[in-house]
Amino acid sequence: xxxxxxxxxxxxxxxxxxxxxxxxxxxxxxxxxxxxxxxxxxxxxxxxxxxxxxxxxxxxxxxxxxxxxxxxxxxxxxxxxxxxxxxxxxxxxxxxxxxxxxxxxxxxxxxxxxxxxxxxxxxxxxxxxxxxxxxxxxxxxxxxxxxxxxxxxxxxxxxxxxxxxxxxxxxxxxxxxxxxxxxxxxxxxxxxxxxxxxxxxxxxxxxxxxxxxxxxxxxxxxxxxxxxxxxxxxxxxxxxxxxxxxxxxxxxxxxxxxxxxxxxxxxxxxxxxxxxxxxxxxxx
Length: 284
Fold this sequence. Notes:
alpha+beta, two-stranded antiparallel ribbon, disordered C terminus
C-alpha cells in the first residue's frame, strides 16, 4: 500500500540530493516567510519541530515545512492535486527558485503524481491510477524509461487489460529518489534519510488538542551539535531501556494586536487550488 504523502519542493541549487546529503538546517525567518506566503489569510500555527519522515501518513491538518536557504519543502498528507499545472502561478508567489517539483502518493485513490517546473513553466507532469492516466504532460525523464519499458509491472493488476505497465505511485516515488536522493516507499538504503531532515510542524485550522509535544531526532539549527541526539541500544542481555528521542515543546504563537481601523489593509488573496479543495484559505 502506498504511503500517504505529498511533498512540494522549491529549488535554487544545482543538486538537491547532494544538498540534503550534506546536511541541512532550518532558516527560521525564511521558513516563517515561506509559510506566510503559502498560507496567506489562513489560521496556521507552528506547534513544534520534527523530521520529514513524520509527514508520511500525518493528519490532514498538519503541514511540515522548512526553508534551508537554497531549498525549501512543504509537505503533508493533504496537499494533493490531479492537475499540477494549476499550481504554476501560486508557486511563483512563493519566491523560492525557478525549479519546483511535486511528488504525491495517495493510497485512498491509489494515485501517483509527479510534476516538475523549470524557469516557471511546467516541463513534466504525470498523474494516474493503476488503470487510468489522468495527466501526461511533457517528455519523460530518463529515470522513467524502465517503467515505460515494462520493467516494473503491477503484480496486482497482471491480468487487467487496462493496467498501465507500472504503478503510478512507484513512478512518483522513483522521481523523488532521482531528484532528492531518497524515496518514501521504496529503497531504504539511500544516502539521504528523511528522518534526518528537520522541519517545522504547523497546524492548519483551530486547535485540535494535539499540540502538546513534537518528537524530533535531528538538529534543528546550524549552531546545534554536529552529532544529533540518538537513542542508544542496550547491551545484549540487558534490561536497560533505550533513551527516548528528545522532546521539544511547541512554540507559542502570540498574535499581534490589531487596531480597529485598518483603511490601508490589502485585499484578501484568493485561495489556491489545493486550499480550496481542502477548505484551507492559503495560496496552495
